[in-house]
Amino acid sequence: MLHAITVPAYEDALRALSAQLDKALAWGAENNVGELQLLAARLAPDMFPLPTQIRFSCGQALQAVSRLGVAGAPDFADDADSFAAMQAQIAQTLAFLSAIEPASLGEDGARPIEFSLPNGMIFDLSAAAYVRDWALPQFYFHIVAAYAVMRHMGVPLGKADYASYMMQHLRPGTAPTA
């Protein structure tokens, strides 16, 4: 159960994020928006720039599976300094996630999970509550922030780019033709 509601979601969103980065880099080249401009972009002065949002997206997925019992997750201590480096962080995260055996996350959603924040706050939750109330929301926050930074810069992304993984579930013959 815990694997089914975490790892596939992380993989789908990270693959979509990778495609968004590809689109952003191509758009930047076509529109004279340099890679450094995109790397420095942020939504507000007190928010993190694009490379940090990418690092945090990967990190949230890796922290979650680690807290649920998987060892050996990569650690990205620094922000990427290029689009290639951001793509490498995503690729490394996807490779790690794809190697996780479902049983390694356990099936006991009631087992206790404890985690602390750098400010000293400590949380005690069940594994299921941790996934529902912290792990997935934190992951999606940074996925959406990265998407929003690219949109803010003018990259022509839409909902189809954000949720591109949904196409695997599309009923044949129901896609719009125009």
Automatic annotation (TrEMBL):
One Pfam family linked to the record: DUF1993
SUPFAM superfamilies assigned: DinB/YfiT-like putative metalloenzymes (SSF109854)
Gene3D superfamilies named among the record's database cross-references: dinb family like domain
Matches recorded under PANTHER family: BLL2446 PROTEIN, DUF1993 DOMAIN-CONTAINING PROTEIN
Protein known as: DUF1993 domain-containing protein
Organism: Sphingopyxis flava
